[in-house]
Amino acid sequence: MEHEATQLEKQHVHSVYENTAAYFSDLQTKAWPRVRNFLLEQKPGSLVVDIGCGTGKYLSVNTQVYNLGCDYCEGLVEIARRKGDEVLVCDNLNLPFRDQCFNAVISIGVIHHFSTKQRRIKAIKEMARILTPGGQIMIYVWAMEQKNRRFEKQDVFVPWNKALCSRRFSESNQSGDKGEFVHSAKGQDIHPAQLVISECSYQNNLQPETDSKHSRDVDHCLPRACCMKISEEENRFYSALGRSFRSWFFSRSLDEAALRKQSDKMKHLKHEGVWANNTVPIQHSRHCSLDLGHPGALLNEQGLDDDDDVFVESLSLKKPQWSPATDALKDLSLNGEHQSVAQSKGDKASFINGPVEDRDHTCGCNKDGAGKSDASKFFKRTSTTDSTDSALDSAVSVGDQTDAVLDTKAFMRYYHVFREGELCSLVEENVPELQILSSCYDHGNWCIIAERRG
Amino acid sequence: MKLLTHNLLSSHVPGLRPGGGFPLKIELGHPSELPPEPLPDYEANEEFLRRLHHVLLEVEVLEGSLQCPDSGRRFPISRGVPNMLLTEEEA
């Protein structure tokens, strides 16, 4: 499992950040207030390290302390260096620091990139190791529970699009410059099946039993479009562009795969193999499919060929319903309407009600068989009702759905999103050297502050 | 890389003796203007403190390497950035 984990992270974390690092220098992302405060509260002369510092956003918040940053990605570290930050390249799982030498550690939007529970624990333990007794750590991870939707599963791929990178963002929803941008297909040679295939071939690497020809079959590929997390700031941006494209892809959980390997060895589940995740997400009242009037119809559908393709309909917002970030996690009820933009350029979104009608189109495994057009149906573009601008409209050809799907260079980033309480439990049960001082939900993230005991 | 950072670094090559891997040897020829040992009562010695501050925080290694004193493994420093990543085989 270690090898699979490193491979997954290599492909869907490290190489994505390396390849997209160049775009980040243009981004000006603000520091999260809570993180800022945490840093500003440190005593002058403290030794503070940002593990997973990216471009060094937090390294100049408090000039009274010694700020050190490190990241796995050389490209991002270079950018920080150019800003004059003190940085180095290293691995969170094997920090090159002495024991107990830092007064404070921050880990903002980092450990959700680790693909197994063990690795996440190891990352936290390493950070605890370098903390001096009484020293504090702040950890931020992406939450499964989001303002207007909920990730259906915890292991997801989120596409990234460079089209928006030259734009200035006032804030990012996560510390790392996550940049979930609307995808521009303009001028790209897109073959959605290729994107899908690249994931399949990865999948196949892990399932030697799988018939390799399936890798080219769209039917068996990884789940398709869903919703992308969008912060308020990004949403304003998207509104301005007139189009919001939300999609993410569900990854199979390596943790589950490990469990399944042990218990399901003999049970063959077609192409799913060790990847199969038969656990159906529990539909609760806030679930979108319920709101759409078809209780769990789509997502609970065991009839799906590829039962791991949990497809969540793209959600629309009648108008942005972003409550202030400081609100407690409010009602996650979703607008019942499902919009899809397949239609025309510049038009307002067309509305399709209910997922059931679209099921054939939107199922992760399309029963129609492989093909460009089928794959394209997986990727639903959504539109806010305020669709006005045509900046992205022009990028979406009329009726050419294949271009409307993701660029093969879309750089899918892997995330394990955390449930409420998961981060706390992780620390309480596995990292006894840390004592949790506080935890909260902030801007779509679960956050904890813990102190090194002793 | 500032020398204060160097103070915090340790080699994490697997299999080192306990307490091993520190301090990493900086390889480049730059003499320091510090005495080999701290003078008694150095906290009050303005001159010494000034020099110490300078060496720790104002001198940067731009190109060179850090060598693990136990395993000999070298970690490169380029453009002021040390790369402490181990290869998959090493880790």
TrEMBL record, chain A:
What CDD domains would the database entry show?
A: AdoMet_MTases
Q: Which InterPro entries match?
A: AlkB_tRNA_MeTrf/Diox (IPR051422), Methyltransf_11 (IPR013216), SAM-dependent_MTases_sf (IPR029063)
Membrane-spanning intervals of the chain: none
Q: Which Gene3D superfamilies match?
A: Vaccinia Virus protein VP39
Any one of the GO CC terms: nucleus
Positions of the Methyltransferase type domain: 49-139
Keyword Phosphoprotein among UniProt keywords: yes
Family named by the database record? Belongs to the methyltransferase superfamily.
UniProt function note: May modify wobble uridines in specific arginine and glutamic acid tRNAs. Acts as a tumor suppressor by promoting the expression of LIN9.
This protein's name:
Probable tRNA methyltransferase 9B
Q: Which organism is it from?
A: Zosterops hypoxanthus
From TrEMBL, chain B:
Under Gene Ontology molecular function, one entry of this record is: protein heterodimerization activity
What stretch or stretches form a coiled coil here?
none
* Top-level taxon of origin: Eukaryota
Biological process GO annotation list?
Answer: rRNA (guanine-N7)-methylation; tRNA methylation
- The signal peptide stretch is none
Pfam families per the UniProt record, alphabetical? Trm112p (PF03966)
Q: Could you tell me which InterPro entries the record lists for this protein?
A: Trm112, Trm112-like
Family per similarity comment: Belongs to the TRM112 family.
Q: What is this protein called?
A: Multifunctional methyltransferase subunit TRM112-like protein
Its gene name is Trmt112
